[in-house]
Amino acid sequence: MRSKANRFHVLCAKHIESEESLATVMFEEARRLVIEHSNIPTFSEILFHNLPDVEAITLKGGNITTIIFSSDTLSTLRIDKTGLQHLNITPGPNHSLNTLLINRNFITTLPKSIRYLYALSILDLSQNRIEYINLNWFQQMENLLVLDLSWNHIAQMDASSELRLGRLKSFFVSYNHLSQIPWFPIGFPKLERIRLSDNYWNCPWVASVRKQIWDRRIRLFDSDSACSEHSEGGLCCYDRVPVDVPARYELIEIEFQEQADGVGLEFKKVTSEPPPLMMAEQSDAGSERRTCDELRERVRGLKREKLALVKEKSEMEQQYSKKVAAMQETLRSVREDLEAAEQEVTRYRYKERMDLIERTAKINVETGAIGVS
């Protein structure tokens, strides 16, 4: 089956349910491809290789649960609400992919091979279920300008002291379970915009980074409206992480080992492997309920603030009107007093002049009488 040659092609793949079926569709000279409502469970590297001339792919809707990315020509990949659970990236340097947008899906973990996407300038992973991020994965993305991790379940971020995201300008992590971000904002030398609201920030951490954010004039584009404990610089913070936040790590695990003198115990630290998808799915309902409750509380708080502001505005307008009326009354009274004073002065001067004329006339009369004598 051969599609009409053009540079932009939209394919409704609702009835295409296998890689083989999609592989029969040819997209000659297509540069931008949108595939909607596909029910292909896996979008593999074979499909990417079958689209060598396509520069931008959008997968929208449908049911694509696994994607294995491998392409040396694709510059933009957008995956929107496909039910994606597993993202795999073929290891090896990739210098072509510039924009990666994965939104409204069910990813819980990122492959470490994401570090090979050297050319990324925009990475948007918002509205997923990611639980863990190592910021060093993005260190080799020298052109990365935007990193959006908002609306996830991230409870832990790691980074080494050498972290430098040299060109990153926008960093969004609102609506997660974070208590702090390591080496922030030191590791973000060009940062201009951040979103941090609706997390479980540690109060001392917020206090320590607040001055740095202010001194560097980094713009905070959001804030928390209602806080259950403390508020620091517009962000809710806590003395310790709330108990309903799922723990990211177990500190130790116990292994039983056979020894010559009996059963021995070995304690070892658990590494940062994320929990399996099944465990995440079991907690989804509770997490979603908590998210909905938090949103409802936020909406109620905003409504209360709006009512309070409207009331305050009305009271201020009334006070202003009263003050203006009082000032006008005072001004009228002053004018009346001034007019009365001017009239009094005029009468006084008139009387004084008449008295002077009368005395002068009297003196003249007396002087004339003396002269006659």
UniProtKB/TrEMBL annotation:
Organism: Aedes aegypti (Yellowfever mosquito)
Gene3D superfamilies the UniProt entry points to: Ribonuclease Inhibitor
SUPFAM superfamilies: L domain-like
Organismal lineage: Eukaryota, Metazoa, Ecdysozoa, Arthropoda, Hexapoda
InterPro entries, per the entry: Leu-rich_rpt, Leu-rich_rpt_typical-subtyp, LRR_dom_sf
This protein's name: Uncharacterized protein
